[in-house]
Design brief:
By secondary structure, the protein is α/β, with parallel strands linked by helices. It contains 15 helices and 19 strands.
Length: about 475
Amino acid sequence: MTIPRTLFDKIWESHIVRQQTAETPAVLYIDLHLIHEVTSPQAFTELRQRGLKVRRPDRTLATMDHSTPTTPRGPDGIIPVIDAQAVAQLGQLETNCADFGIPLFKLGSANQGIVHVIGPEQGLTQPGMTIVCGDSHTSTHGAFGALAFGIGTSEVAHVLATQCLIQNRPRTMEVRVDGRPGFGVTAKDIILAIIARYGVGAGTGHVFEYTGAAIRALSMEERMTICNMSIEGGARAGMIAPDDTTFQYIAGRPFAPQGAAWEAALAQWRSLPTDAGATYDRTITLDASQLTPMITYGTNPGMGMPIDGRIPLPEEMPDPSARQALDKALRYMDLRPGEPLLGHKIDVVFLGSCTNSRISDLRLAAGMLKGRRVAEGVRMLVVPGSQQVRQQAEAEGLHEVFRAAGAEWREAGCSACLGMNDDKVPAGKYAVSTSNRNFEGRQGPGARTFLASPVTAVAAAIEGAVADPRKYLRN
């Protein structure tokens, strides 16, 4: 009798190279290794010191994204890099890739972009794979029914040298989202609501599998937004079972299987979804029909609330540590318990990041911004997730909408998601950001971040203050 298995079980078990017992760590084979300029230099240094080669350069891909500038190209068509550290990081990645035979999407090239945007758009990300990268938000690729997670620099070296990784088996958690999302509620609002309800530690030691009617109804780009923030809920990874939506997205992309190989891949991919009768170690639920647009107020993604809500009162927190965390966060944010955020003045709006920088995000934002203006005194940065997204947006005229509204149309990159490049939020200023982290100093020293969806970000840009996007949307 065959024991029913979850999506995670099937992928994990098919990638075990060696494991002494069920209780000991397993050596897992890695199908795809994505690298960038920030977490890879030390790994290549280790390879050189030990005289090792990259075992599977054909299963490794590099891109430049974290420290890259997104400023306009010069007259020569080159994006200028001014920061000395960025120059060093980008130059070292180029040298490392050349020395070890790794394909590289370098700054300004047609395929360059954020690592978690280019993998899917190139068709490299596929169901059933194990995927790693030296980046926390590798869970994005789990939207395709892959087991994808971030790794540390020493692990990057290990995968480069062996194409394998030693891992303890995590537990499984079903995150079931049913109901039809309310008006103005996006995928970003769903994941912010999950984290706000269950906390940033709920998924510790687990891999999330998102299920339910609300998840199945999402597009692939919306599913990527959901899985992207799994790590913010404490999970090792986040996954969504592949279906026809997945297959239609992958079909025809540069690295997708072709011809007979496509038919064989489809047959294998269709066997991946969790079997009837399979059990998870834990299940949590959310009713999407009860949601409204969300926004964060504190310094971790779990400090979120409905856009028309009020900042929690300390006495509402039963846990003393939670009360202390709230007090510390509000002091950093210079906010008061019990106050609404609606109408709170903002200074910067950032539309971008591996969470919300794809073409559907830009279309949604441009449709809302068309014929309107960014409020005086507000700086709005629109940063596509890849050069391909940027080219598609320009082909559709979206860049003209953003520029006409007074927003800055930038080159592709991680940009203001993190204070690692020139696109920083000034100290003491408030930003509404479509990124995934609102930690102290995340967008720059002293920067204060409200996480929200693209439509909530656009509403804030229009009003120059936190605003409910539903007043600007057509029902």
